[in-house]
Amino acid sequence: MRLRRPPTSVFAVPAAAVTAVLLATTSASAAVGTAHSAGPSRLGTCQEKALGVKAAPGGPESVVHISVTNHGGSRCVVDRIPTITFAGLDGSAQTVPPAESGPYTLARGGRAYAALRTADPASTEGHFVGTLSVSADPSHYGVSFGAAAVGMPQGIHVWEPVTTLWHGSAAAASSALADALG
Fold first, then answer.
1. Does 54 or 182 have the greater pLDDT score?
2. What's this model's pTM, rounded to 2 decimal places?
3. Cβ partners under 8 Å of residue 127, min gap 6
4. CB–CB of 134/150 below 8 Å?
5. 3-class DSSP assignment, residue 77
6. Peptide bond preceding 40 in cis form (omega within 30 of 0)
7. Exposed, middle or buried by CB within 10 Å (0-12, 13-18, 19+), for 146?
8. Three-state DSSP class for 168?
9. What does 78-132 look like in DSSP terms, one character per residue?
10. For residue 66, with 0-12 CB atoms within 10 Å meaning exposed, 13-18 middle and 19 or more buried, which class applies?
11. 72 CB burial (10 A radius; 0-12, 13-18, 19+)
């Protein structure tokens, strides 16, 4: 299983540089910062308690359909890569095609979809686990789903698991997974 690299931050700067910038701040630059923070890239991360996360069998063996719904009162963002982990195993499912973390906006009442393949059905390698956990953002704990709930009552076969980014429909997520796997 490959590990997903933690997101890097553009805000990782030495404390001395931050202090210098803060001392040099003028009212004009403060006004620019305020206007920028009102833009869509500055939406807050969705609160975990405001999200509904679901996982269900995806049709083909070892495929799971995942969705997240924003039940909160306003737009917010989650990571564009769902975080999917497996009980007792290190790492998380990798994105196909490979992608970096970034914001994905969920409207109030909005829903996003991803597709997960836990293992190549032809693979004889791997592990069998009883649960998988799905989080819409790496800062959240996530929701765990038993093997039977995702259509794998004998256990979830895990070998080089892959997931899509969030998409606007379940069909688009399934298509993205099929395209990536060839």
1. 54
2. 0.76
3. 86, 88, 89, 157, 158, 159
4. no
5. strand
6. no
7. middle
8. coil
9. EESS-EEEETT--S-PEESS-----EEEE-TT-EEEEEEE-S-TT---SEEESEE
10. buried
11. middle
Nearest C-alpha neighbor of 1 from the set 116, 134, 161: 161
CA distance 61 to 117: 8
Among 119, 120, 129, 121, CA closest to 154: 129
pLDDT at 20: 35
Q: Position 76: which residue type?
A: C
Query: Which tokens hold the place of 104?
Result: 């994905």
Question: What is the mean predicted confidence (pLDDT) over 86-99?
Answer: 94
pLDDT of residue 61: 87
Cα–Cα distance measured from residue 108 to residue 71, given in angstroms and rounded to the nearest whole number: 7
Tell me how far apart the terminal alpha carbons of the chain are, to the nearest angstrom. 20
pLDDT tens-digit series, residues 6-61: 443 333 333 333 333 333 333 332 322 222 233 445 789 999 999 999 999 998 88
Cα dist from 170 to 50, 81, 106, 164, whole Å: 21, 15, 15, 11
| H or E element in which residue 156 lies | strand 156-158
By the 10 Å C-beta count (0-12 exposed, 13-18 middle, 19+ buried), 119 is classed as: buried
